[in-house]
Amino acid sequence: MSEPRIHKIIHIDMDAFYASVEQRDFPEYRGKPLIVGGSPEGRGVVAAASYEVRKYGVHSAMPAAKAVRLCPHAVFVKPRFEVYKKVSQQIREIFFQFTDLVEPLSLDEAYLDVTENHIGLPSATLIAQKIRSLIREKTNLTASAGVAYNKFLAKMASDLNKPDGLAVILPEEAEAFLAELPIGAFHGVGDATEAKMKRLGITNGRDLRKWSEIDLVEQFGKTGRHYYRIVRGIDHRKVKPDRIRKSIGKERTFSEDIDDLSWIHNFLSELAEKIADVMKNKHAAGKTVTLKVRYADFETVTRSTSFSHYLDNANDIAQTAIQLLEETKVGDRKVRLLGITMSNLNLNERGHFKQLEIPFE
């Protein structure tokens, strides 16, 4: 029998992407503790943090109010998502010079399978070096890369030498690498899981490997199987170039906390119009409407409802969202973010949208 094929996977992660684009385009921000998103008054959430401000403990998804406390002299700028999207497209075009198997995770990171590649180069490490060099040449930005035989290890490797770094985890090195890794450094192990694992005496990969799959499932549910596999360097997920879009949504963080119900109803109607426009352009519709509410104290709740038929009309989406609003405390409590998402979309087996059929009588 032939040996199982070893894949060559690269994970590319742009370094502090949004913040780096701002520092590239505006020299006055270079070397400064820069925060993209939020405001100096503590409104909103950090979308990105430059390496200069990360030294103070500031990171993306942090409430701006906490970021201000950690670094009072931080410089805040508004995000320019259209610019970031254009740069991201430039980077993606570089990826496609080497392989068609590109799985974007977001604007600033992606997996590439270069087991077979367009330039016939057998070394994934050399390909990663070429990609990083081209990114720097074409965008004047830096990227970090991880190279390994599966997605999990490639993701772990890309974090090892950030920023502007490259790391490789060979098959024969994986076991020793994972054994020494602190449990909180495993991708997918969040703060709550890390705390629980430490209570169970699991402080690193070596400790985790001692646990049986049955015992891990008993403690962590289905995710226990995932922990059992990854600590052994097992990850059979393929790089999927045609990612299925599972939802269409819009949300907005307000510069002021809002409790005016009339204003909120109007805003939800505007949001529904934007979502309906996107769905119209993609010939899409959905059966499930989800309302997202973030209160002034950052507590976030969602409310959903599903229909037996597809919705693509702005008025229907808006009215559903407004009805869901009644299941929240909006009005009694101020809100800082509202969002609507349509899911359970009309997808065919390949992940593309089906054209809706409208019966005529």
UniProtKB/TrEMBL annotation:
- Any Pfam family the entry gives: IMS_HHH_1
What are the coiled-coil residue ranges? none
Required cofactors, per record?
Mg(2+)
Entries under CDD domains matching the protein: PolY_Pol_IV_kappa
The answer, when asked if Aminoacyl-tRNA synthetase is one of the entry's keywords, is: no
Which PANTHER family does the protein's record reference?
Answer: DNA POLYMERASE KAPPA (PTHR11076:SF33), DNA REPAIR POLYMERASE UMUC / TRANSFERASE FAMILY MEMBER (PTHR11076)
Q: Which HAMAP family match?
A: DNApol_IV (MF_01113)
Q: What protein am I looking at?
A: DNA polymerase IV
Name the gene: dinB
